[in-house]
Amino acid sequence: MTSAQHTASPTPAPHDQHDGDAPCGGCGTTRRTFLERGALIGAVGVASTVGLTACTDEIRSEDNAPSHHVGGTPTQAVQLAALPTGGMTTVQVEGRTLLISRPDQDEVHAFSAVCTHQGCTVAPATENGEDVFSCPCHGSHFDVTTGEPYAGPAKKPLTEYTAAIDGDWVLVTL
Ligand code: FES
C-alpha cells in the first residue's frame, strides 16, 4: 500500500493517451500531423511551438478509454478527513489524476480525470447547485457517482477505478 499526494486543483493530463488520427477539437490537428509539424520545426529551427503545445492537451480519443480500470494495488489516495460526506476532490496518485467523490458516509467513487471526449482534465465543480465533474474544454459534464456523461460532447463515461474506505483513508486500486 502506498500513499498519494492530495492536490487542491487538477493538473493537465499527460500526453501519452493521444490518438493517432483523432482531430483536436480546438485546432483540427491529429497526432500524425502534430509529429510531422514538430519534425519540420526541428529541421528549420523555428521555435513556434506554442500552438502545438496548447493543442496536444486536447488531442485524445474516447475510443481508447476503458469503462473500468483493471488494476491490482490498493493505494492510499486521500484521507477521509479531506473528503467530507457529500464532497469531491482531485488527487494525484502515482502520476494519475483521479476524481474522487463521497456521496454518503460509507460510499466513495474514483474516476480518471481524463475526459473521454478529447482528453482534457476534468475537475469537480458545482453548477446550478449540483455537484458535477466538469470538463473545461468543451463543457462535458459527468455524474460524480457513475462517471456517466450527461451534457456536452463526451459520449463515454469516465474510466472508473475501484475505490473503498479503509480506516482513515480512501483506497483506490491502481
Ligand atoms: S475534451 Fe472535449 S469535453 Fe472534455
Keywords for this entry:
globular, 12 strands, mainly beta, binds FE2/S2 (inorganic) cluster, 5-stranded antiparallel β-sheet, 2Fe-2S, disordered N terminus, 2 helices, Rieske Iron-sulfur Protein, disulfide bond, Cytochrome bc1 complex Rieske iron-sulfur subunit, 174 residues, 4-stranded antiparallel β-sheet
What is the end-to-end distance?
A: 10 Å
Q: Strand percentage, roughly?
A: 25-35%
Please estimate the helix content: 10-25%
- Say which CATH homologous superfamily of the largest domain is assigned: Rieske [2Fe-2S] iron-sulphur domain
Secondary structure tally: strands: 12
Q: Which class of the largest domain in CATH terms?
A: Mainly Beta
Characterization of this structure:
The protein has 174 residues and is mainly β. The protein folds into 2 domains: 5-12 and 66-173, Rieske [2Fe-2S] iron-sulphur domain (Rieske Iron-sulfur Protein), CATH 2.102.10; 18-59, no CATH class. Helix content is 12%, strand content 33%. It has 2 helices and 12 strands. It has helices at 31-44, 50-56, and strands at residues 5-7, 74-79, 87-93, 96-104, 107-112, 123-127, 130-134, 141-142, 149-151, 160-161, 163-166, 169-173. The chain has a 5-stranded antiparallel β-sheet with strand order 1-3-4-5-10, with no helix packed on it. A 4-stranded antiparallel β-sheet has the order 6-7-8-9, with no helix packed on it. The protein is globular. It starts with a strand and ends with a strand. The model is unreliable at 1-60 (pLDDT under 50). The structure holds FE2/S2 (inorganic) cluster (FES). Residues 25, 58, 115, 117-120, 135, 137-138, 140, 152-154 line the site of FE2/S2 (inorganic) cluster.
